[in-house]
Every structure is written in structure tokens, then in C-alpha cells.
């Protein structure tokens, strides 16, 4: 079987030109191996600068002996303690629901998650308060390392495709989902390269050739 980059290049020669120029992408090490702490981190980061979110999580760890609290410990924390860490009322409700759904089994362990499809995990995890499809797709890509996830609602993925293919407008999510079928079963890798394309075009001196 041909390598994933070769299959992507055959499916989309324009993307292939980027792959040939950039070469292999350096894998990003996951911050968390399990979904429960990854979800806590994702919720803390929503609508905040990364440094502010990390400060909130740091205060939460400090309040719990230097580690993120397990689900039972988090549910036992009073609202005043969570507010003191910097969580808003909305995020407090979200992380408490995350803890409750970890306890009731809605959030699987990494081992159990291996037996669940991407769609099954999206269906389960989007029942958590404050957690949408995009958040789960990021966990599938960066925490669980799923190989065939294509987050069509992501601005960077759509913008990378637009810039790479020299389009006037970003493709709509539904249209990009159809386009992305050609990248299967390596849509995660395609998304990573599209993010790379979007990042490169932020640099004034960088151009991407359509050839």
C-alpha cells in the first residue's frame, strides 16, 4: 500500500505540491493521554488566550495537590474554590458535567475508546455541557491520534484549502466534507497539511504555488 502522503498527493496534486515542499510533519505530543483531563483542558481554553487558560488550570492543580482532580474530587470542590481558580459559572457547569459523565461512563477510558468509532465518540462526548463537535474532533486528532478526522468547521482547515487552491472564498463545511472524501482514509493528515498552508500564508514572504 502506498504511503499516506503519496495517496494524498494523488488525490489532490495541489496538496501534493505542498507535501513535497514541506516534507513530513513533526508530530505534536499530546498533553493528555486520557479524554477526561483533555476535556477539562479544552473547556478551560474555550474563548480564552492560552496563557489565561493555563493559569486557570494551574490554580486548579494547586488547589488539588498539584494535579488535575479526578472526577469525584472535582465534584466535591465548592463553587467558591472553582471561582477562585478563574472558572466562570458557565465553565463550572461544564467541568462538573464532564466529571459526572466520566463517572457514569459516558466519557470512556483510552482503552475503551479504542473500541468506539469516531462518530460514536462524537455522539457521546457532545452530550457534555459546553462540548461541541469541533472540540471532540480536536481530541480525536490530537489526543487519540485518529487517522481519518476532517474538521470541516475549522476556520484554519477551510482557509488552508482556500489559499492552497487559490479560491476567492472558503468552501462551505458541507462542500469541504465532500471534497475531503478523496483524502480518506488519511483525512487527519490532510487537515494537518491544510493547517500548515494557512499558517504559511500568514507570512508575507511566503507564497504557495498552484503548480
Structural notes for this entry:
Helix content is 59%, strand content 0%. The chain contains 13 helices and no strands. Helix 1 packs across helix 2 and helix 11 crosses helix 13.
Q: What name does the CATH topology of the largest domain carry? A: Endonuclease III, domain 1
Share of residues in strands: under 5%
Question: Architecture of the largest domain in CATH?
Answer: Orthogonal Bundle
CATH class of the largest domain: Mainly Alpha
The number of domains: 2
CATH-level-4 superfamily name of the largest domain? Hypothetical protein, domain 2
Number of strands: 0
How would you characterize the largest beta sheet?
A: none
pLDDT below 50 for ≥5 consecutive residues: which ranges?
205-211
First-residue to last-residue Cα separation: 26 Å
Which outline best applies?
elongated
* Radius of gyration computed on alpha carbons: 19 Å
What's the helix count?
13
Mean of residue pLDDT? Answer: 93
- Helix content percent band: 55-70%
Order of helices and strands: HHHHHHHHHHHHH
Secondary-structure-derived class: mainly alpha
